[in-house]
């Protein structure tokens, strides 16, 4: 399937990025994070789930939709592929979580992801630890 819609926004890395979580990764609008947030790969996001365009939201709420998320810094990138689901409300005001599992809540962007934060490109993680800008592209 070739993605037909794209939504791109920026976030930032943070010195507390550890990228050790085995089942999720998250981008948040929160400006700070603790070391306990081992799934968080980006802070100060310029977008939330509420900002995703209506047509793309409709596609994400279909379990047959393959969702691609590209995380990109100046030195590295990674692509994560997962799926939509009808129970995704896409209405959390600050957090965007991609999950390996089938768990859904207001924070969930996609389920059945092929990677979690622990699986991300080490060069990407190093850039994020040093606070570099993160470009996030969601394609469906």
If you consult CATH, what is the topology? Jelly Rolls
> Quick one: overall form?
globular
CATH superfamily: mth639 domain like
Major sheet: order of its strands? 1-8-4-5
The ordered H/E elements are: EEEHEEEEHE
What is the level-2 CATH architecture name? Sandwich
The CATH class designation is: Mainly Beta
Unreliable segments of 5+ consecutive residues = none
Compute the gyration radius: what is it? 13 Å
Tally of helical segments? 2
Q: In total, how many beta strands?
A: 8
Would you mind describing this structure in some detail?
This protein is mainly beta. It has a single domain, classed as mth639 domain like (Jelly Rolls, Sandwich), CATH 2.60.120.630. It is built from two helices and eight strands. The chain has helices at 54-60, 122-129, and strands spanning 6-12, 24-28, 40-42, 66-72, 77-83, 95-99, 108-110, 133-139. The strands form two sheets. The chain has a four-stranded antiparallel β-sheet with strand order 1-8-4-5, with helices on one face. It has a four-stranded mixed β-sheet with strand order 3-2-6-7, with no helix packed on it. A hairpin with a 4-residue loop joins strand 4 (66-72) and strand 5 (77-83). The N and C termini lie close together (9 Å). The model has no long low-confidence stretch (mean pLDDT 96).
